[in-house]
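Running low. Any example?
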Amino acid sequence: MIPKYFFLTKGVGKHKENLSSFELALRDAGIQHCNIVTVSSIIPPGCKLIPREKGVQMLQPGEITFVVLARNSTDEPHRLIASSVGVAIPSEENQYGYLSEHHSYGQTEEICGDYTEDLAATMLATTMGLSFEPQTAWDERKQLFQSSGLIIKTTSITQSATGDKTGLWTSVVAAAVFLPPDATLPQTATAPVQASLVVQEGPQKTG
């Protein structure tokens, strides 16, 4: 199975039971009806990133669904948690890309998103033989990667939340969801969404 499309999604849930809060986070992400199988970090060559609303329509209840998943939970009141998935897509369609997942405590949504975007881009860069100092700030490496012409698209999706003040379990998820190779885009869909240029955009955010 080599997917042709994938999409990014995220969600948050709260409940007195940890497992139920995770289920509610999956519902918020729109993937609760799938049998989720977590996989590692490779975007197949030519696999297109599409909008979440189109991707969710292409899922079937009960189907085996492969995802790169980041999740986190807490029952500590006011504790800040986050989960994030980063994406790095090469300029050449015959080259594979990378996904990275990360969960954190105490990081803001922006910092967590930047971290996962950095992870994905760095992993892809090392496969292409790009030389750089790992200690260099991410903004500087963004410019290096973009100027190389080899990595032109990066993005991330991040969900953060603070622990419920009454002690309910709070769960957050972020995921890259691969669609079956025989899946077709809904007829109302337009061209696949373009990921952000590496020097232009940061992580996707919610208010």
User: Anything to note?
Assistant: The two ends are 36 Å apart (CA to CA). The longest strand covers residues 151-162. The chain is about 25% helix and 35% strand.
